Each structure stands twice: as structure tokens, then as C-alpha cells.
């Protein structure tokens, strides 16, 4: 298993070891909080060490009275007889400890060694003296001494502090901090687990031990190992310090001194004791637990009656003065825990509005849920407002079904009291929700109902938004450009009249998008609309349009545009906590990776989307389809079940309209050699597309009919498909090459001459497309084209992974951390060519990431 985000420290430690083995000894101090991975790092260092290096590992124990020279006793069996004899004598009182030190130094001088002393924060005085003794003499000894310790337990009065101060003066003593994992690393750790990576990061604070224990434990439980570790930390605390810990566990996150003093008189000394044990941390302004899961573990053991009393005390104290906006969420928490419904309804809705304004949509949804638990005490209008707020927060937090349920209830309540304006607005929002839920027919009908209701009233912003919704649906369902444009014009007119900039920018975008998808051109107009939304500080509109661009770039198989659009949308949505849009972006991004021939990365990306518990049905269907196509193209089993699962998540129109689902079913049949099914499935798709104009949807289906030996009907087809249907396979292949789609280019060349077939075969082999390789060879045999078995060059045969010289060059540049563009510049090749080489390298090495490829390089060099 890879150690995430520890490459730099391992590289440094390995460098120290190489210098030390050469005769210039070194000492490395590896420090970090409990569970951050110090032991894992030194174990990996030992694995990476040259076999000629003797590895000696000892540890200090958390005993009330530490073992004298405990670490030395651990590693004594691997030391020389002189050291063992001296150690025995020192423990028996027949010789001095410095004699032991002299014997150990002599022993280390005779062998290249890696000496590890773990957990020196628990060391006895003799062990600390030993470390100081060795540190002073290391420059002439072929040894690296590594000492690990918890820096969160080292205060001014800790016995280790003076030793660390002394070692600071030695230039051959190096310090290495192990930081908690980043959000990205925690998300990588969570791959393959049905957990919210962001929530995992929040609870664990990036601590690798806590994160891995959560992933290994049953859902919704605190791992026993974490519970036991916390109990061990608390066991030595005084009663006053334990009370501080309990109160802070009840109070929650980041507690100020005045708030703590409102519950406990004079808590300072007890607080410092709790900080010293590593459970808490404080900066003078606030005190908090180092990890949320530790707080939850402590809270489990606090009696319910005591919790209730503390919450009521704090609620009273916080309400006694002015309430800041940042305190609203905390007040709502304490109000509910204090069993005060009136206070909950006072603070939770305000906390939700404040959170939404800050872009914290998951927090906003949670606060609305809290308020809705007591909404039966409210007048109907206020109850409905809470439902509407909750629904909107859920959309942006990707809690689709909750949002739909709340919006349906809001529609019924507005209708019951005769509020036609709000009923129409709620119907429009419900329609917006239903499309990503895969219910396209209901979304369309609900959108029409919204317009019908609102057209019966005086024109306003709400009607403009309702026209915009129909404009969007028309675009996504690939209706005639004129239909989309008509709705767009109505939306723009009302948007400009009532000052709704979001309506105007979105309507212009979708009108341009309809022209782009159906007639060609218009990409620049769409880009201008996205830039305009971002410039006008319309985060929801801009995030939405940015993700739609990811879809359209993938739909048009444009590799460069897809990569750029995904990068922009992902960064924008991450910065603004737009989780729903972020998941959509990553799903479309997986399709873009598939188009570019990066199948391993596409599968990884799709799998991460599927593992996220908040992924909406359309996103899940797309990710499942990408996984199915990767498996089909690689010749693996269980393709059909994935496609059927995808189809079961959404309406047939949605499966077809998003642009990949129906075509994937057809391609899977072709790869399986079932030409009859290919023709039947493709014709079904074309029938469903009747009356729509979308050359990027109908074109591929017509081409599959042709490839399966059928005669396709005349349908709109985008340029590369139109060229192939017209018999210009060379033009089609060239266009696919320009778009950065090596697999599609190879498919087009199957209709070509002998050189084209050889070129297609080479491309399929480089991609690892085994069924397509078999199909190509069969075509070549049928046409009498000779299979030239040239075999790899000598350099390729000599490489254990079959890499060419150019691919070896690319692999070495991957090890330097270069991007595709940087690799292209270094090797004087096009960025797309560099991308193809990178994909080929990953495929041949059987890895999915650049980091894994670099590790393979080091492994082959050591062999």
C-alpha cells in the first residue's frame, strides 16, 4: 500500500541513509501527532534500504516507570557480543552506562546501519543520554539514527525538550515533520469505500490512523481502536482536566475562553493539562479537540443529564449578549441539545441562510432539517419557506431525493392556500430537480405546468426563470434550435426587464449551446457566457454553466476542451462548495478521459463518483457506463450488468440524450461480435431520436450500423461520423486524431487500406483494447492483409515492461512530476502525442497513476 503524501520525507530519509552508509553519519528526527504515520514511514524506509544495511529497531514504551535503555534492549539480539555484555552489566549495576554507549558506537562503526528509536517522548533518561552521545559522534560513523516522537505531547517541561534544544546545534541532525493528510489524499484513501470523503476529512482532520480505522469499521460506529486509544490518553488526567475535556466535548468545536468559563470556573490550569496530553489544542483564542472523532468518542461517555445542563448553561450565556452571525449555527446546536424548540426555530433558519450565503450548502441543508423537525409549531407560510430553503440547499449539496420531497410538499402547501406565484416558482424548481434525477418526462411536464401557472399572472422574474427552464430542457433534449431560441428570447426579455442577470446569461448560453450542438460553431459564445457569469459574481449560475461545458466538450469528443473545462469547473465548484455540480463535473470528466484513451484514469474517476453517497442518478448512470465501456474495450466480463444498472437509473430519453448510454450498448454488442444486436440497438436509438437534431448522437449510431454490415439511414452526423459514412475513412481518422481520440481514429481506419489496418492494430494494441485487436486481425485475414510480426526492438525487448525508448523517456519525465504539456516541451512533441505516450506507459506498466508509474521506474532500476 502506498504511503500518501510521504514521498518527500522518504526521499530525504533515503538520502540521509545513503550519505550515512558512505561514512558520514546522520541523525533524523521524525515528528508528528499520534497516528500521523511515523512508524509507517520508518518501516518503509527500512524496506527501501540496501540489503547490506543492518536495520536495528527499538521502541520506548508508555510505562509509569520507563525501562532503562528499553530501545537498546529491544535491538540487543542484533548487536555484537560486546554490546550485549555491557548492557547486561549496566542493568545489573556492574558497569556504567557510558561503557554501553562506547560498545554500541564501536558496533555501529563496523557495519552500515539504520538505527531506529521510536516514541522517544516516552524515553527514560538513559535512552536520551544515549541519543545525545551518538549524535555528537555520528559524523564518523556509517549509520543513520532515526528518532520518532509525538510533537503534540512535548511541552516546555517535558524531559525531551532539553535534548531537542541541544540537538538543534548539530548540522548533521535533520528534522522532518509529518503533517496530516490533505483533502485530496483522504479522498484517495477513501476510494472504493461508500463514504463522503469530505466528511471523512472533517472527522479525521487528515490523521491517517483515524481515517483508516473509520474506513475499516462498520458504518456509523466509532472504531474500537480509536475508542481504546482515546481512553488510554484520558486515563492519566486529573479529575479537573477530565471535566474540561468532557465540557469541551459537549460544547463542540472551537470554544472561546469566556464560553468555557461560563460553565467551569477557573479552567485554565486544567485546560493546559488536557492540552499537554495531546487530546486538545489551544491558541489562546479558542480551544478544540485535535480530531472530531476523538470528541465524539469522549462525548459518548458523558452522561445525558450532564450534557443537557451544559447546553442550557451555554445557551443562556450566548443569548445574554449580542449574537454574531458566525454564532448562529452554534446557537442552533445548543438550542436543540437544550430541548428548546422556540430557540431552534429562532436560530436554525437564520443559520441556514447565513451558511447558504457563504456557500456552505451542506451546512445550510442540515440547519433547515433541524428547523423542520419543529415546523409543526409554525404558520403554514413559514413552514413552506423552510421547505423551499431546504430544497434549494439540498440541490447544491447533492441531496437530490430530500430536495425533491421538500419541493413537492412546498408545491402542495402553496396550492392549498392559493398562492399561485409561489406555486409556479416551486413547480419550476421541481422541474429543475427532476432532470438530474433521471425523470426527464416528468421534468418536462412539470416545467410546462410552471409556465402555465405563471403565464396566468402578471409577468415577473419567476416567469423568466420558468422560460429559462424550458430553454434548458429543450437544449438538453436536443429539440430544434428554433424551439430553444424561442424560449431563450422570452427568458432574456423578462430577465432584462426585471434585472435578473442570471436568467440573461443562462438563456444566452443555452441558445448558443443549441446552435453549437446541432449546427456547429458557437463554442466561443458559450465560453463568453460562462466568463460573464463568473465576472458578475453569479456563483450558482457560473458553476452550473461550467459543468455543462464539461458535458458538451465530452459529447463532442474534444479532448483538449474537455480537459480544460473539467479543470476549470472542478476548481470553481470546490472553492464554492457546489458539491452537486462537482460530482457532475467529475462524471463528465471520466467520459473525457475515456475519449482520450486514458482508460485507467477514466475508470478510477468513475469509481470515485460512484462511491460518493451523494451522486445523483444521471451522474451514476454516466459513471457506470464509463466503467462498462472500459471493461468492454479491455475484454473483461460483467459489462452488460453495468449497462443495465445504468439504464435502470434514468428514463430512456435521459439515457439517450446524455450522449453515451445508448451508444455504449451498441459498442459492447460490436465488441462481443453480435452484429445483429448492434444493428437492432442502433436503429432503436435512431427511432428514439426522430424529430430531434443532434449530429453527435445520431452520427455514431449510424456509423455502428455501417460497421456491423448494415445500411444506415440518412441522419444528421457530426463531421468525423459524416466523413466515415461517406466512405472517407482517412478524413474521419484525421479528424479523430485532431480531437485527441485514438480509439475512435483506429475504428475509422478499420475501413481503410492495408497500412491503415496496420495503424489501427498498433493503436488498439497500445491501448490494451484486446477485443478490438482480435476484430482487426480478423478483418485483415478476411481482406488478405498480411500480419507483419516485426516484434519489438531490442531496447523494447530488454525493458521488463516492454517500453520503447521514447516511452522510457516519458516515464523518466513522469518521475520528475512533469505535466503532459511540460513533457511535450521537453521532448519537442505535441501535447496530444505526449498524452498518448503517457497513456501507453500507464497501460504497459499496469498502473493507474503517474506516481505508481514512477515507483515502477525505481523498482526496475533497483533490479
Automatic annotation (TrEMBL):
Keyword terms, alphabetized: ATP-binding, Nucleotide-binding
Residue stretches making up the HTH luxR-type domain: 796-861
Pfam families xref list: AAA_16, GerE
Keyword Membrane set for record: no
SUPFAM superfamilies listed in its UniProt record: C-terminal effector domain of the bipartite response regulators (SSF46894), P-loop containing nucleoside triphosphate hydrolases (SSF52540)
Superkingdom of this protein's organism: Bacteria
Record flagged with keyword ATP-binding: yes
Protein name: AAA family ATPase
UniProt source species: Streptomyces carpinensis
